[in-house]
What we know:
The protein is mostly helical. The chain has one domain (about 5-45). It has helices spanning about 5-15, 20-35, 35-45. Helix 1 runs antiparallel to helix 2. The longest helix has 15 residues, at about 20-35. The two termini are about 15 Å apart. This is Cortex morphogenetic protein CmpA. Pfam families: spore_CmpA. InterPro entries: CmpA (IPR047764). It comes from Fontibacillus phaseoli.
Amino acid sequence: MLPKWLSNQIMRAFHKRDRRQIRLLNDCWFFYYNRPDRNSESGNLQ
């Protein structure tokens, strides 16, 4: 699930059409989503 703070920043960047910020936040999301501790948790739930 996307954290609220990240969702707010992404929405603001899209509203301002700030491509640099959108790319940066997108990279942050993939880093957050693919972090090792999250993957081990999701593996235990299945």
